[in-house]
């Protein structure tokens, strides 16, 4: 790959990270697709930036779990969905006066909520043990004791 194309991919990756970061605070802007796009661009242009993305305290664990199909922790789902509806609701109540935009925002919120609920729930392996080949959490073990 040419140096010019690598630089272009790095710039696209940085833009995707910035937009993904903004998406954390603006619910109608999805974070995950932009982080995945950033990873795509960095994987093809800069191992340094790709490693930084996965090592980043804010994005790294989230991106790693998502890419590995491990899912999202319940706490993250609850926080994300709560913030989504809080900001969409506030936008509709205080800022938006056009009914079709309000309906559109509600549809976006419903879509994002559905997507998040369909993502597998992440459960750390160390919180589960196998009893008779059946996974049991620590809470379930203490209930049986």
At a glance:
The protein is mainly alpha-helical and 145 residues long.
Describe it for me?
- The model has no long low-confidence stretch (mean pLDDT 82).
- The chain starts with a helix and ends with a helix.
- Strands 1-2 form a two-stranded antiparallel ribbon.
- Helix 1 packs antiparallel against helix 2, helix 2 packs antiparallel against helix 3 (47-55) and helix 5 runs antiparallel to helix 6 (99-118).
- It is mainly α and 145 residues long.
- It is 70% helix and 6% strand.
- It contains seven helices and two strands; from the N terminus they run H-H-H-H-H-H-E-E-H.
- The protein has helices spanning 3-25, 31-43, 47-55, 60-67, 74-95, 99-118, 138-144, and strands spanning 128-131, 134-137.
- The protein folds into two domains: 1-68; 72-124.
List the helices and strands and how they pair.
Blueprint: H1 3-25, H2 31-43, H3 47-55, H4 60-67, H5 74-95, H6 99-118, E1 128-131, E2 134-137, H7 138-144
Antiparallel strand pairs: 1-2
Helix pairs in contact: 1-2, 2-3, 3-4, 5-6
Q: What is the average per-residue confidence, as pLDDT, rounded to a whole number?
A: 82
Read across the widest sheet, the strand sequence of neighbours is 1-2
Strands, count: 2
Strand fraction: 5-15%
Range of helix content: over 70%
Count every helix, treating DSSP H or I runs of 4 or more residues as helices.
7
Which properties best describe this structure?
globular; 7 helices; mainly alpha; 2 domains; two-stranded antiparallel sheet; 145 residues
């Amino acid at each position: 790959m040419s140096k010019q194309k690598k630089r272009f991919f790095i710039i696209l990756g940085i833009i995707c990270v910035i937009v993904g970061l903004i998406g954390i605070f603006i619910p109608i802007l999805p974070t995950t697709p932009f982080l995945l796009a950033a990873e795509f661009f960095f994987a093809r242009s800069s191992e340094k930036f790709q490693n930084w993305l996965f090592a980043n305290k804010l994005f790294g664990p989230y991106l790693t779990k998502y890419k590995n199909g491990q899912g999202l922790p319940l706490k993250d789902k609850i926080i994300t969905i709560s913030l989504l509806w809080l900001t969409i609701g506030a936008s509709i109540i205080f800022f938006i006066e056009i009914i079709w935009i309000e309906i559109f925002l509600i549809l976006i919120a419903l879509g994002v909520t559905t997507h998040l609920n369909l993502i597998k729930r992440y459960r750390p392996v160390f919180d589960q043990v196998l009893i008779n080949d059946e996974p049991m959490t620590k809470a379930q073990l203490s209930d049986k004791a």
